[in-house]
Automatic annotation (TrEMBL), chain A:
Protein name, entry field: DNA-directed RNA polymerase subunit beta
Pfam families: RNA_pol_Rpb2_1, RNA_pol_Rpb2_2, RNA_pol_Rpb2_3, RNA_pol_Rpb2_4, RNA_pol_Rpb2_5, RNA_pol_Rpb2_6, RNA_pol_Rpb2_7
Function comment: DNA-dependent RNA polymerase catalyzes the transcription of DNA into RNA using the four ribonucleoside triphosphates as substrates. Second largest core component of RNA polymerase III which synthesizes small RNAs, such as 5S rRNA and tRNAs. Proposed to contribute to the polymerase catalytic activity and forms the polymerase active center together with the largest subunit. Pol III is composed of mobile elements and RPC2 is part of the core element with the central large cleft and probably a clamp element that moves to open and close the cleft.
Gene from which this protein is expressed: RET1
Main location as per UniProt: nucleus
From TrEMBL, chain B:
One Pfam family this sequence matches: RNA_pol_L
Coiled coil: none
One CC-aspect GO term: nuclear DNA-directed RNA polymerase complex
GO biological process, one term: DNA-templated transcription
The organism's place on the tree of life at top rank: Eukaryota
Name of the protein described by the UniProt record: DNA-directed RNA polymerases I and III subunit RPAC1
Major location category of this protein: nucleus
Gene this protein is translated from: POLR1C
Species of origin: Mortierella alpina (Oleaginous fungus)
Localization: Nucleus
């Protein structure tokens, strides 16, 4: 009975549900109210797909590829002709340019292609020839030639021209190259150099700003191929002026507009203010001023400006000086706001541009909040290797051409030539100006461009190969142009607009804090794109040309001005539709995916951008409240049927730059999508960069801790690259047994940190032990160290060149000197040397032993007879290289090769294997660093019920003030992972949950809290507290006691002052500094003071003449010519030196002596 | 707190003396207190007869490498002394000098030597002397092994083979490749149990064609306190016997939950008169995860303690000496030490 009723009831319910469902289907499109919203699982898989096509350093490579494949041709086209002043018929025209494959520079080589690794080893530059196609006049005919080399271009690794591109792992292994190496750097003279990303204010955009005096000004940095200049429209005493460097005085804005041909005051007013009376009121004083100055016509205005123009530097033919007004017109057309081009003296666009700038100033004067934020990331542009190299190349190419022209003129000037003049021979033997220019710039980091008068230092840096992460971190680094010394917080502060673009954690501490930034994981930096098609498209989509309109029409309430890369294109009255249509075209792939368009409601304008250097990132498009990416897409992606680019092409995802991002509604998670949402994030953890991505559970840590870890992760010793054992770097730190972390993150997997790790999973007990663990010191288990924990190798390169000297003599190697009586006995100093005078590989080398027994000729300058190879003609002196270190080492590798200028190069790599010792520095991944305070025997270590004893004991006082909860969760997750036999994830804003981890612990018979019952190893009795016990990933940092330990009793002294030398490397003294001196003075310890500052330093005995007070010598005063009244006394040598230096400057210090006692 | 006291008599002398009390967030009564005059009226003077009566050793598990036994009736200090001696002071033989003739493998000389050092050697250390640093090696203090390996392409392997073990000959060098080179009368002395590494399958290094390793290694006798390679045990540790006391009865669904708070086999649920009831059947299996103390329903109903003088001792030998011999040797070491102290004491007494 009961069951039957039950069944019926169930049936009823089922029917009811069905009805409700049908009802809901009609209402909510098939979704019940309580149905879980189906979310797209694993959409993070888009991230590896992105990294596969884009890579972590794709921005560098893209930029370089663009430069080499596109920009070079543009530069050539802009400088295509070389003419001669002598022969008007002569010309040389560049018709094409091409960069070849990387090749050895020497022509006779059998196999001319080479690998980057060979360049690293042999101190070469990894570069390729630049070939140009030319067309020139020879005699009476036109000659065309293809493929004329004009210089060599350093090639970025993994760029389109690099030999490594598109190779698989096997092929890379053959070239001794690491498949995980991201590339994006150059090898110049054997050194890996990175061109850092430079952050700048965006060009050709109006930025309204308040200057130091509180005056509003709108500034534009105009940048064209020819020139860069800055134009301001600013206020002074309530009136508006135009400011420019080429004009000595500020020009009233109305005068400027009149000079550009806008003579009617009404027209000016309308174009600046529209119909708004408030604006007109604010603007009218300017009109008044202009009329007071009695400037009414264009000519009057031009005359006025012409009188203020700075004298042009370039000297035209002397005598012919143009009238000032023409000069003014020329400057207004080409220099002021250079990016707004003036064709056929049509100043209308420039007038409108100036009017718009003025309007922005007026607006900002009325409403203070309309001032732009200079630190807004959308107002920033990033300059990459390609752009910097293109600037450099154009400069070098111009210099090349002007040199060539000079040479041509020189030859053509000669009245009669034996040979017909062929410019090709000139071109071939024109020297290596371009090659050396590139090499010099990249290896020194000094970018000096004559045409922009730009002199920038520190553009390039040596790629740090301390660890894999440090190299990677360097590739994503952005350096700012701001001065480091200025104390302003704005540029250093975290900007809300950097969300997803720049890593919020990864920035250095100290002076560069916030100025040096790092790219987030999923960023792309755009390269320049064609404007033409966008202009056409905009007009097709209904933009009206602004030159045809008057002021009131332009500033109607619904009218939006359309800008393309900062230039005014026109207006539209249907901004929303226009933008939507434009975006549709982009999603359909009709225009480049990196074109951005957004509406600025403050200024009633639509901005379209296709310029280079904008930071952008991909997002999933949301339509009608549903993301376009569905589970099936992701399945196809996992199956390899779709790639990231397909997603773009299908219009499922799109790139947004910062400006467009601010104009969108982006949901963080799918569940947070609201009707207004336009996009959804691919994965929130991509807001972090590659370096911060190593931290497990960073969202549980106090934010500065993550920043500290970002700095320390770069100092961790580990594996560097798959080719680490083939490298001969100046200094190489390697860990003997690196492990991948128990608790990893998705980022770790994607960047390959699990394959090139830098650390070990240490079993950590969080407890106080022995008192040697205060102040963050760690207690290490001796048995763990015996078994290889924290063991690392330090390899150092020692290199020398066997030089050839101008007089024909050369350095040589000598075999180890033997005992004169017994040829088998070799001095200990030369024991490790082989017969060739270089240490044998594998030999144990003690401090002081010689590893390269070099000899140099005594006479390297004067001529010894060029052909005399007689060894007796030139004697040799020993110049052996001996090993200087505190610890013995092993000769790891010896390389003997030649550099590109045929000098013999010898590199010896000496290796030390070190086990951790007292004072070595360790750190977990949570900014918790500490030094080893004591090493304890295993039997003294506490042990758990299972007999496990810790590798590391960490003091719990490290936790409360640091608030690194992430570390605690890492331990818990690590412990659970160990027990379950799987790796756990600590991915930011996700990762394995604490609850799940606790459950695993309980299932395996452990306390849910991660705290274990532990027995003391010393007493054998249980500890009265439960100990937090489990694995934590610990990094060994490069700071080791052995490299820093220093003491001195007696030692070397400086030659000039006879004071002890400075610094550990010179076995220097320990300085008693000013503050210490002050202490001793304050205490009155005069004898100690005397002892420290004179007796133990540079005590010197002098003889003073009591008569004249001058210094004598050995009881004789040379001044008085007597030995009467000579006194001996002791003073610091530096003091005596001072007296003598003063004497040399005609100041006589006299000592007046008195008896004290 | 009051209720707890009443129910479990927390402070009664017997509990405090013989039990370590495992509480939710701390362990109390950790230190041993059974020495004379500690508790008024309780005579805790050490008595040999009483000790003989109480002291027990029971072996629970024994294999070539592992032994678990119960040691009942001693102070923690004694049990701990055995543990410490096992880890640090029972001598074994281990490789301590490596002479590298040739090594072109990716593993550099020092690391190779380090790896070789950690290989356990099957040799009876009692038959060798300690070798002082300045002493010359003799057949009484040194064992010599040779290791030569050269990697070549395997001519029989197919060209598409990717497994290095098949593609190359000698692609991995194992501890089994160490060849004992008997010196003096060693071959005679050890003919019953030839000296060799305990395990033959420890990877020392990997090679690729053209690479080779040729080394001679010398083993010496040493102590774990000098280097972990001489430690005869992977670890030796003990835990105290757990004890689960139930106050009253835990019945019904609570009983099942109670059971699930312990590892399998610790608590049984029996049905008595149609009511489920939790019964502790084997407290030894408990890992003392204290899970039961987390739940409010068991508050005051359960008390966890550990028996202070009941040590469940585990010896994990690395294989060179069998665990039961290890214990005997450890006892011997302790006895020798005691004898030494005794001698020294007697000497001082006599000199007075």
């Amino acid at each position: 009975m009961i069951s039957k009723n039950m069944d019926e009831a169930k049936e009823d319910i089922r029917r009811g549900i069905k009805d409700a469902k049908a009802h809901a289907e009609a209402l909510f499109g098939g979704k019940g109210l309580t149905d879980p919203i189906p979310t797209v699982e694993d959409k993070w898989k888009l991230l590896p797909a992105f990294l596969k096509v884009k890579g972590l350093v794709k921005q560098h490579i893209d930029s370089f590829n663009y430069f080499i494949n596109v920009d070079l041709e543009k530069i050539i086209k802009a400088n295509e002709r070389v003419k001669s002043d002598v022969d008007p018929h002569f010309y040389l025209k560049y018709t094409g340019i091409r960069v070849g494959a990387p090749e050895r520079p020497d022509q006779e080589a059998m196999n001319r292609s080479y690998t980057p690794h060979e360049c690293r080893l042999r101190d070469l530059t990894y570069s390729a020839n630049i070939y140009v196609d030319i067309e020139y006049v020879r005699g009476r005919q036109i000659v065309r030639r293809k493929g004329v080399p004009i210089g060599r271009m350093p090639i970025m690794l993994r760029s389109s021209h690099c030999v490594l591109t598109g190779r698989n792992e096997m092929e890379l292994a053959k070239m001794t190259e690491c498949p995980l190496d991201p590339g994006g750097y150059f090898v110049v003279k054997g050194v890996e150099k990175v061109i850092l990303v430079q952050e700048q204010m965006s060009k050709n955009r109006i930025i309204v700003d308040v200057d130091r005096k509180g005056f509003v000004q709108a500034g534009v940095t105009s940048s064209t191929m020819e020139r860069k200049s800055k134009t301001y429209v600013g206020t002074k005493h309530g009136k508006i002026y135009l400011k420019h460097n080429s004009i000595a005085e500020d020009i009233p804005i109305v005068v400027a507009l009149k000079a550009m041909g806008m003579q009617s005051d009404k027209e000016i007013t309308q174009l600046v203010c529209g119909q708004d009376s408030k604006y007109i009121d604010k603007f009218s004083p300017n009109l008044e001023e202009c009329s007071k100055m009695k400037i009414f016509t264009q000519q009057q205005a031009l005359d006025f400006i012409g009188s203020k123009v700075k004298a042009p530097k370039r000297s035209f033919a002397p005598g012919i000086r143009r009238p000032a007004s023409e000069e003014a017109l020329d400057i207004l057309a080409t220099v002021v706001l250079a990016h707004v081009e003036v064709h056929d003296n049509n100043f209308r666009p420039k007038c409108i541009y100036v009017a718009v700038m003025t309007r922005r100033v007026v607006m900002a004067m009325l409403r203070g909040d309309l001032v732009d934020d200079r630190d807004y990331v959308g107002n920033k542009r990033l300059e990459l290797a390609g752009q910097l190299l293109s600037l450099l190349f154009e400069d070098l190419f111009k210099k090349f051409n002007s040199d060539l022209k000079m040479n041509i003129d020189k030859v053509l000037k000669k009245p009669n030539r034996t040979q017909e003049f062929d410019v090709y021979t000139q071109l071939l033997f024109h020297g290596d100006h371009i090659t050396s220019g590139f090499v010099r710039a990249i290896s020194s980091g000094n970018w000096s461009l004559k045409r922009f008068k730009m002199e920038r230092a520190g553009i390039t840096q040596v790629l740090s190969r301390l660890s894999f992460i440090s190299a990677l971190g360097m590739m994503t680094r952005i350096s700012s142009q701001f001065e480091k010394t200025r104390k302003v917080s704005g540029p250093r502060a975290l900007q809300p607009s950097q969300w997803g673009m720049l890593c919020p954690s990864d920035t250095p501490e100290g002076e560069a804090c916030g100025l040096v930034k790092n790219l987030a994981l999923m960023t792309h930096i755009t390269v320049d794109d064609e404007e033409e098609p966008l202009v056409k498209l905009a007009f097709i989509l209904g933009v009206e040309d602004v030159s045809l309109l008057t002021g009131p029409e332009v500033y109607l309430p619904d009218t939006f001005m359309v800008f393309l890369n900062g230039n005014i294109l026109g207006i539209t009255r249907h901004s929303k539709q226009f933008v939507a249509a434009f975006r549709r075209m982009r999603r359909a792939g009709r225009i480049s995916e990196f074109v951005s368009i957004f509406i600025s409601d403050h200024h009633n304008s639509v901005h379209i951008s296709c310029d280079g250097g904008r930071i952008c990132r991909p997002l999933i498009i949301v339509e009608n409240g549903k993301p376009r990416v569905r589970s099936e897409h992701i399945e196809h992606l996992s199956a390899g049927k779709l790639s990231f680019d397909d997603f773009l092409q299908l219009g499922l995802i799109e790139y947004l730059d910062v400006n467009e991002e601010s104009d969108s509604n982006i949901a963080l998670y799918e569940r947070e999508i609201i009707p207004e949402s336009t996009h959804v994030e691919i994965e929130p953890f991509t807001i972090l960069g590659a370096v911060a991505g190593l931290i497990p559970y960073p969202h549980h840590n106090q934010s500065p801790r993550n920043t500290y870890q970002c700095a320390m992760g770069k100092q961790a010793i580990g594996a560097i690259a798959y080719n680490q054992l083939n490298r001969i770097d100046t200094l190489l730190y390697l860990m003997v047994y690196p492990q991948q972390p128990m608790v990893k993150t998705k980022t770790i997997e994607m960047i390959g940190y699990d394959k090139l790790p830098a650390g070990q999973n240490a079993t950590v007990a969080v407890m106080s032990n022995s008192g040697y663990d205060i102040e963050d010191a760690l207690v290490l288990n001796k048995a763990s160290l015996d078994r290889g924990y924290g063991r690392c190798q330090v390899l150092r390169k020692y290199a020398t060149l066997l030089r050839q000297y101008p007089n024909g003599s050369y350095d040589r190697l000598a075999d180890p000197p033997v005992h004169p009586d017994n040829p088998d006995v070799v001095q200990e100093k030369f024991e490790v040397l082989d017969k060739d005078g270089i240490a044998s590989v594998g030999e144990r080398i003690k401090p002081g032993q010689v590893y390269i027994n070099k000899q140099m000729p005594t006479n390297t300058s004067s001529d010894i007879g060029a052909n005399s190879r007689d060894p007796t003609a030139n004697a040799y002196k020993n110049a052996p290289m001996s090993y200087k270190s505190a610890m013995e080492g092993y000769v790891d590798k010896v390389l003997m090769t030649t550099t590109d200028n045929d000098q013999t190069l010898i590199k010896a790599l000496i290796r030390q294997t070190r086990r951790p010792e007292l004072g070595d520095k360790f750190s977990s991944r949570h900014g918790q660093k500490g030094v080893c305070g004591i090493i304890i025997q295993q039997e003294d270590m506490p042990f758990s019920d299972l007999g496990v004893c810790p590798d590391v004991i960490m003091n719990p006082h490290g936790f409360p003030s640091r608030m690194t909860v992430g570390k605690m969760i890492e331990l818990l997750a690590g412990k659970a992972g160990v027990l379950k036999g799987e790796l756990q994830y600590g991915t930011a804003f996700g990762g394995s949950k604490v609850e799940d981890m606790s459950r695993i612990l309980i299932e395996n018979g452990f306390s849910y809290s991660g705290k274990d019952y532990v027995t003391s190893g010393v007493t054998g009795e249980p500890l009265s507290a439960y100990i937090y016990f489990g694995p934590v990933y610990y990094q060994k940092l490069k700071h080791m006691v052995m490299d820093k330990m220093h003491s001195r009793s007696r030692g070397p002294r400086a030659v000039l002052t006879r004071q002890p030398t400075e610094g550990r490397s010179r076995d220097g003294g320990l300085r008693l500094g000013e503050m210490e001196r002050d202490c001793l003075i304050g205490y009155g310890a005069s004898m100690l003071l005397l002892e420290r500052l004179m007796i133990s330093s540079d005590i010197f005995e002098i003889h003073v003449c009591e008569m004249c007070g001058l210094l004598g010598y050995a009881g004789w005063c040379q001044h008085c010519k007597s030995s009467k009244g000579m006194a001996k006394m002791q003073i610091p040598y530096a003091c005596k030196l001072l007296f003598q230096e003063l004497q040399s400057m005609n100041v006589i210090p006299r000592l007046q002596l008195q008896n004290v006692f | 707190m009051v209720a707890e006291k009443k129910n479990f008599k927390h402070n009664d002398v017997e509990t405090l003396r013989s039990r370590v009390i495992v509480e939710r967030d701390r362990v109390t009564s950790t230190a041993s207190t059974d020495f004379p005059h500690n508790y008024p009226g309780v005579d805790l003077a050490w008595d040999f007869e009483k000790f003989k009566e109480n002291f027990k050793i029971k072996i629970n598990r024994l294999s070539k490498t592992e032994m678990e036994f119960d040691m009942i009736g001693v102070d923690a200090a004694i049990a701990n002394a055995f543990r410490r001696i096992l880890i640090a002071e029972v001598p074994t033989m281990a490789i301590s000098n490596v002479f590298v003739m040739n090594n072109t493998s990716v593993v550099v000389d020092e690391v190779l030597a380090h790896r070789l050092g950690l290989i356990p050697i099957l040799a009876d250390p009692t038959k060798f002397d300690f070798k002082a640093k300045e002493e010359t090696p003799t057949d009484l203090n040194t064992i010599v092994f040779r290791l030569t390996a050269q990697c070549k392409h395997n001519p029989k392997a197919s060209s598409t083979e990717t497994d290095p073990l098949k593609k190359y000959i000698h692609s991995s060098v194992y501890s089994g490749d160490l060849v004992w080179d008997p010196k003096g009368d060693q071959a005679e002395r050890f003919k019953d149990c030839p000296i060799k590494p305990v395990y033959d399958d420890i990877v020392i290094t990997k090679l690729r064609p053209g690479q080779e390793v040729e080394v001679e290694v010398h083993c010496e006798k040493g102590l774990g306190q000098d280097h972990a390679k001489w430690s005869p045990v992977a670890t030796a540790a003990y835990r105290l016997m757990p004890e689960i006391l139930i106050n009253g009865e835990i019945t019904g669904e609570d009983a099942v939950k109670f059971q699930s708070c312990f590892p399998e086999g610790v608590v049984d649920v029996v049905v008595e008169n149609g009511v489920k009831k939790a019964v502790v059947v084997n407290a030894r299996k408990d890992t003392v995860s204290r899970e039961v103390l987390r739940h409010a329903e068991f508050e005051n109903k359960v008390k966890l303690t550990r028996v202070r003088d009941h040590f469940i001792f585990t010896i994990e030998s690395v294989g060179s000496i069998e665990p039961q011999d290890l214990l005997v040797q450890a006892v011997q070491v302790l006895m020798d030490k005691c004898a030494q102290v005794k001698r020294a004491l007697q000497a001082t007494l006599q000199s007075d």
